[in-house]
Amino acid sequence: MYDNYFKNYEYTYLYRVGNEDKTLVVRFSKANFQHLTGLSYYRGPKKFYED
Q1: What's this model's pTM, rounded to 2 decimal places?
Q2: Residue closest to 37 by CA, chosen among 24, 20, 23, 51
Q3: Integer Cα distance of 15 and 42 in angstroms
Q4: CA end-to-end span of the chain, whole Å?
Q5: How far apart are CA 46 and CA 14, in angstroms?
Q6: What are phi and psi of 21, to 5 degrees?
Q7: Rounded to whole angstroms, how far apart are CA atoms 37 and 26?
Q8: How far is Cα 15 from Cα 24, in angstroms, rounded to an integer?
Q9: How many CB atoms lie within 10 A of CB 41?
Q10: pLDDT tens, the chain, 51 aa long
């Protein structure tokens, strides 16, 4: 599922705080996957995804 919907994608969220428009850009890569799971891995985030 991560490969199909998130990996190498960029999502841009537009929102407003008071009268000010804001933008939040979220980029997903192999290295982000470990962070999203909340786990630690001794070989690092890129290897976590590959393993």
Answers
A1: 0.53
A2: 51
A3: 37
A4: 16
A5: 29
A6: -80, 135
A7: 16
A8: 8
A9: 13
A10: 777 777 788 889 999 999 999 999 988 877 777 777 878 888 887 788 777
